[in-house]
Target: Nitrogen fixation protein NifU
Amino acid sequence: MNSSLDDFIKEVEEEIWSEFSEVAVDHMSKPRNLGPMEEDGNVGFITGDCGDSIKIWLKIKDDLIEKISFMTDGCGTTVAAGSMTTELAKGKSINDSLLITPVIVLEELGGFPEDSVHCAVLATNALHDAINNYKNTKK
Model:
């Protein structure tokens, strides 16, 4: 009985994972920059229509993103999008990081199924929100 259930679970997992590239699966299963960071006002927080939310923390020095992290209560695709978004922004200037779009994140991840594309929008919007909050505190 247990063997049949294990086989069924394995089959379902393989079907789900087959919709994603190796890069996306890697970022889902081993997310980079995951975890909270001490807040100093450089935080972006977005909740999508789907109910998933993502929060991105930035440590900025001389207008460069020195350190970045994220947390999400979302699905695996939101985790992958947050992971890739933070990897793309790390070490870049805040202005260059504002140029990171959902299309770029999806290209780097090898694409998502259509019903998961919004996860890249969430992640990049949270990044842009954090950068804009930083810029507003500098005024």
Notes: The CA atoms of residues 102 and 121 lie 5 Å apart. The mean pLDDT is 91. The chain has one domain: 22-138. The first helix runs from residue 2 to 17.
